[in-house]
Structure prediction request, 197 residues.
Amino acid sequence: MIAYARPTAHQRTRGIGLSHLKKIKNKDSTADSKEQGHSNQDISELMERICSLEEEIKGLQKDNKDLQNENKGLQKEKKRLEDRNKDLEIENEVFKKALETKGIKISELLEEIAELKRRVNMNSSNSSKPPSTDGFKKPRTRSLRKRSGRRPGGQPGHKGHNMTIHHEPDSIVLHHPSECNGCLNRDHSLNGIQMRQ
Prediction:
């Protein structure tokens, strides 16, 4: 029979520790290799992201420069418009003063024009002027009657009222001229009777 010596506690812990450390080392090496692969991939992605961000920054810088140039142009336009506005305000003040000085004259001229129109429109019917001053421009007299739609004269169905002729008059009066109108001879006697009523 072969007898084996039992390992001491120190040997046991040492053996367990070494094997365990080897296992841990192997695990750490595999984890390091995996992490190194992940880190390389992450680094490449980060580099690509940084490049894209740099390109985006360049584009934004270019847009910012364009906006600054546009802002300068707008500032110049604003200054020009402000100067123009000042000129217009000065011109407006000049016109206001001119209108204030001429306002009295304009009102007087308007009153004079109204008075002259009133005088021109005066005639014998609306003033104390005599009809002889109306001239050839006489106002038309307009009737206030409205159209009835009927024709002038007697209407259909109306019985006429006129003087009836009497064939046997009560008296006959003869009128002879004292002289002839053609030859001025008083001896001529005119024949013929004209009946008038």
